[in-house]
Amino acid sequence: MAKKEVVIIGGGPAGLTAAYELLKNGGAERYQVTVLEASGEFGGISRTVRHNGNRMDIGGHRFFSKDDRVMNWWKSILPLQGAPSYDDKKLNRPHDMEPGGPDPEKTDEVMLKRHRVSRIYWHGKFFDYPVSLKPATLKNMGFVTTMKVGFSYLASLVHKLPENNLENFYINRFGRQLYSMFFEGYTEKLWGRHPSVISADWGSQRVKGISIMAVLKDAFGKLFGKKKKAGEGETSLIEEFWYPKYGPGQLWETVAKHDEDFGASIIKHAEVVRFNETSDGHIASVVYRDADGAEHVLAGDEFISSMPIKDLVDSIARGDQAHAQVPAEMKKIADGLPYRDFVTVGFLVDHLNLKNETDIPTLGHPQIVPDCWIYVQDTGVKVGRIQVFNNWSPYLVEDVDNKVWIGLEYFCNEGDDFWNMTDEQAIEFAANELVEMGIIASREDILDSHRERVKKAYPAYFDTWYQIKDLTKWLDSFGNLYCVGRNGQHRYNNMDHSMATAFEAVDNIESGRADKKNVWSVNTDKEYHEEK
């Protein structure tokens, strides 16, 4: 029997997972798999950037899932640590080790167990994320604001707003006062749009299980010593997650190596430029351009795409379409799909101008706060979040005992003034904001810096997104085309969701299932973030 030719577009989590699932356990006898990756790296926005001995995690990736299949999959690629990591030893930190697991100090292919700390930085003060009911929270707010928050929340219990936009979604769960403090301005900073014009579906996917009531349940659980591990409880309330020793890109680089060992052909710097159709309306081949500008035609029986839907439709429109042209309405929807782009500016410093007032010990200088992420809710600065890479993994920082390696995350649009800044201009802008917020004392504290830009990092839920179901129905009509991953489905998926779309697509190819409802249904269950 001739092998089935499968072409996978994109070497990110979804594409590499699909190749792995097709080829594991001798799948190379049935499938010839080719992966086309437009860049020279693996992992998409889950890649790890290297700079002068230090590593940057683009956007931050906590490895946790309520899907046991995903958790076991990750663990099969990078086994969980069975001995203390460098910071575990230095801090004499008790740890739940994996029996027989590798020693992070002796091997690189290992997944660390990490403690999650994320806080909000608002008007120069730290608040727990999500906002907790600790005495420190009430002190930071002050009596008058605390009363306003309380009565506003009680009002939201009595008077529920129709959840036809993200603003009402938040107000129903937190009250108008807390919404105006911590959600309204930050959401607009993130998306460039007011929450009143963004679909509530984004909240359903990302923060459905988080509310004042969820925070109360979490607080009472802690009183009785309950700790949420990776994959347990509401997504934003987990206290433990897994993390590759050298960042998320390490896992996907490892998966890519396994894929090639299984028999996959992976072509880097392969930019897809058009698709050709068969006479009966299926995809016949894809045309890609290599690093030298030469074009190549790759025929296939099945096509799995994680490229942005907008680019996918453009490529179909440019193809040799003997059967049909792209309908004008479908092209209009695709062209109008909105994205938010992303810039990270990394800084290496001796210390932060902050004080660790938590009871969580930190590695190195005492002024390193324990946070993985710091959410910057102040609208007076453009930065949205600050990562402290030391706290994700000590192995991301070359001199972790004496230096702090941080990343300032900015949300923007490709082509806008901030995106078009030179590296020097963006670094200067970010450095000035660090000083303005009091995170560092002066510009002279910076020892090294790096700027990284990411296109189409966040699929957005407004404009023609409201008509996306019409577009996905049309894409499904090709029969042998499967759309997977965050940008492949224009859905703000976590990494585990992107992998699950690949699982479903592969299951359909192997079983012969014609409809793709299962592929598109991943991460649409509103209970996902509430109960396991």
TrEMBL record:
One annotated Gene Ontology cellular component of this protein: cytosol
One Pfam family from the record: Amino_oxidase
Region listing for Disordered, in residue ranges: 85-107
Biased composition (Basic and acidic residues): 86-107
Domain Amine oxidase residue range list: 14-459
One Gene Ontology MF term: oxidoreductase activity
Name of the protein in its database record: FAD dependent oxidoreductase
Organism: Bifidobacterium parmae
